[in-house]
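re: ur msg from earlier - yeah i can do the magnesium ion complex, just paste it... oh wait u already did. ok heres what im feeding in:
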Amino acid sequence: MTVEAHKETLDFQAEVSQVLNLVIRSLYSNKEIFLRELVSNASDAAEKLRFEALTDEALFEDDPELRVRVTLDKEAGTVTISDNGIGMSRQEVAETIGTIASSGTRKFFEAMSGDQTKDSELIGQFGVGFYSAFIVADKVTLLTRRAGLGQEHGVRWESDGEGSFTIENVDKATRGTDVVLHLREDEKDFIESYRLRSIISKFSDHITIPVEMEKEHYGEDEEKPETAEFERVNKGTALWMRNRSDISEEEYHEFYKHVSHDFENPLTHVHNKVEGNNEYTALLYIPQRAPFDLWDRDQKHGVKLFVRRVFIMDEADKLMPRYLRFVKGVVDSDDLPLNVSREILQHNRKIDTIRQANVKRIMSALEKLAESDKEKYQTFWDEFGKVMKEGPAEDYANRDRIAGLLRFATTHNETDEQNVSLVDYVSRMQEGQDKIYYITADSPAAARFSPHLEVLKKKGVEVLLLSDRVDEWLVTSLTEFDGKQLQSVAKGALDLGELEDKEEKESSEKQSEEHKELLQRMQDVLGEAVKEIRVSQRLTDSPACLVVEEHDMSANLARVLKSVGQDAPQTKPIMEINAEHPLVERLEGEQDGDKFGDLTKVLFDQAQLAEGGQLDDPAAFVRRLNSLMLKLTAG
Ligand code: ADP
Ligand code: MG
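and the outut:
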C-alpha cells in the first residue's frame, strides 16, 4: 500500500510549550511517573477497544489478546510503551497531542501564580499525562493506527518538546499505539529491565490489562527463543474486587491516580461491595483539589462503569448527580448486560439504585470527615463547596442532608472564610429569633457591609453572608433548615418577630405616620424609579437602603443574570429611609425644591451603590454630589 506522507511540521499552541516546561520542571523529583502515565493511557486505549469491540468484533482484527508492552533498546537508547488498543486517527493525534484542548488551558494559566511550588501542584490537576514523557525523553515518537481493517494508514508524530512537532502518515501493520521515548543522556539508566519492572509493579499493579515485558530469565534446560517472549509484570487483579483489609493505603492512592488522572492523593475514599439481586462494587474517591474543568459542561472522567471487570464508559452523570461530579472512581456491576448502551443507562432501575446508594455513601463520608477532621473538611469545602451548593436544587430528596454539609461565611466571624454550618448557626440563635437570616451580594465585602444588616448587627443576630453566584440558586431551593425559615434581610418588611419589643413595633408604625409628608415628597421626586418609600426598621447608621418584595427577584440575582447576558425582569425596588438619620432630618426640613430633589436622588443612588448596584446615570450622580459638596464648603 502506498501512502502519501503529508508530512507537516506544526507549532505547539503557545500554551503547550509553557505547560511542557512546567511539567518537566515540576515533576522532575518524581520522574518515574512518566511510565505510570503512559501505561495508564495505553490501558485506557485497550479498554476502549474492548468496549467498542462488543458491538463490532472486527475491530479485534486477528489479535484479540489486549495487552501493553514495555520494551527497551539499549543501543538506540529508547524505551517503548506499546498497546494494541483503539489507536488514533491523524485527526485525533492532531487534536489530542500537541494541543491542550478544553477550556482548562486558559483557566490553568489564570490560576498560575508564578510561584513554582504552587504551580507544580496545579499541574497534577490538569491532565498532562502524555507530556510527562518529556521528563525523561528529549524526543518522543508516537506511532499509531486506529483499530479496524478499513484503516488505510497509520500516523507518526514526533517532537523534541521544544515548540513544534511533525505529523505524517506511515504504514503501520498492527493497530494501537507505540510511544518511543528517546531518553535524555542523563536518564539512560531507566533502560534497565529490573528498574522498569519495579516501577510497573509500584504504579500499575492494579491495571487489569496485562502489562508485559520481555522474558529474560530462562531455566537451565530452557533455551532462549529467537523471537522475544513476553511475560506479565503487573498482577492485574482489579483493585476494587479485592477485600478492603488486603488493600494498602498506597494501593488505593495509586489506583486513584490511574482512574482520576490526578497526580495528588485523594482526600478520602469509600469502598463497598453490595450483594443481593443487584450486585456491584463501588470504589469512590473524593479528590483534594478541584480539577480545572469542574465548571466545564462536557467535562469527562468521573465515575467509570464496568460490567464484570469490562470497562463500559466514563459516565459520571449516570452514576453520580451533577453536584457530586467531582467524585471519581469505579462502579463494577455483576448484573448489567455487557452491551449496555447510554440509552439503557438512562432508564435503568439498577443504575438508579446504584446512583442513590452512591450519593448516600458520599454524604456519609463527608459527614464523617466533617465530624472527625474539621481541617480536612474545610479543604474539601473550599474546593468543592460551590458545587455542593447546587445540591439542594438538584436533589430535593437529600436536601436536608446536603444542608447539613453546607458551610457559610457569617457575621459571627471576622474573616470571610466559609466555615459555619447551619447547625452552628441555629445553636447561636437569639432568644425570640425564629428565622435564619441571610444576605446575598456579589462580593464578601458587599455582603458584610451592606446597610441591610445594620439592625441585626445591633441586636447581635448572626447573618449568613452569601456571595457566591450559586447562592442565589441555593436559596431558592433551600428555604428552611431544622424547621427554621431562611429569610433574606433585603426582602420584604423584615419582620423581626419577637426580636422586636412592643415599643419598637409601635414606634415604627408611628414613624411612618409622622413622616407621611416627607415620604410623599420623595415619591414625587423619584416617581417611577421606586415602587414605594417607607420608614425602615433595618437601618441604624445608613440613611437609606433598597429592598424588594418578598417574592420578587433579588437585586443581586438580577445583576448576576445581566452579567451573563440573560434577561432579568425589571423589579422596582422599595426605598427605605432611616428617619433618625441627620441627613434625612435635614431633608425633611428642606424647603428649596431643587435642593430637596438633588438630595433625594443622591440618597437613592447611594443606596444602590451601597448594595453593589450600578447607576443608570453615574455622571448625574457625580454632578449632584459635587453641587451639594460645593454648597457645603460654601458654608
Ligand atoms: P488524559 O489521559 O488525562 O486524557 P493524556 O495527556 O494522558 O491525558 O492523554 C491525552 C489524550 O491522548 C488521551 O485522552 C487519549 O485521547 C490520547 N492518547 C494518549 N495515549 C494514547 C494511546 N496509547 N492510545 C490512544 N490514545 C491515546
Ligand atoms: Mg493519561
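cool cool. The mean pLDDT is 88. ping me if u need the other ligands too
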